Amino acid sequence: MTIDPTASISLIAANGEPIQTTGSVTVTIDLGNQRVTQQVTVAQRLPWGVILGVDFLSSHGAVIDLPHACVSMSGSPIPFSSHTPTKPELLSMAPMDMLERLLPHPDLVETEARQKRGTRRRPVELGRCNII
After folding, report:
1. What pTM did the predictor assign?
2. What is the spatial distance between Cα 109 and Cα 111, in angstroms, rounded to a whole number?
3. Residues 6+ away with beta carbon under 8 Å from 96
């Protein structure tokens, strides 16, 4: 299998982090009872072995079934993987993660902001989100 480095593209993860690619290669993929040949982009240091994009899923008639935690292709259900990423912080969708990276002590910033606003109300905590 030879990677074509001239086909390298820029990709951005759901959290805005860049994904480093090294090129593309044509591979055969078995999904359920369907075998497809597909040109794929090769990325470095991903916490998963493969990510199927919307373009791939759409072109192969995939139906995403969230209540049953599977994707169906050609009528064959394929269960979602329960794999936990090796670096979940790279793909986290938690909005607080970005704030934590920028601000070393978000609680201190929140306290200072409340003091400047002239209120000492306790925030209502909803998961990792505070409503002041």
Report:
1. 0.52
2. 5
3. 106, 128, 129
Alpha carbon 18 to its chain centroid, in Å, reads 11
Residue 100, token pair as written in the block: 């934590």
Residues of the chain by 3-state class (helix, strand, coil), percent to 5: 25, 35, 45
Contact 100, 107 (CB under 8 A): no
* Rounded Cα–Cα distance for residues 108 and 45 (Å): 34
- Give Cα separations from 125 to 41, 46, 116 (angstroms): 41, 33, 20
Q: For 32-79, how does the pLDDT look when each residue is reduced to its tens digit (9 = 90+)?
A: 778 889 888 888 877 777 788 888 888 888 999 999 889 888 888 888
Rounded Cα–Cα distance for residues 55 and 41 (Å):
13
Percent of the chain with pLDDT over 90: 4
- Nearest 5°: phi and psi at 35? -115, 125
44-53 own/partner pairs: CB under 8 Å, 24+ apart: 44/20, 45/20, 45/87, 46/19, 47/85, 47/86, 47/87, 47/88, 47/90, 47/91, 48/81, 48/83, 48/85
Extents of the domains making up the chain: 5-89, 94-131
DSSP 8-state symbol, 56: H
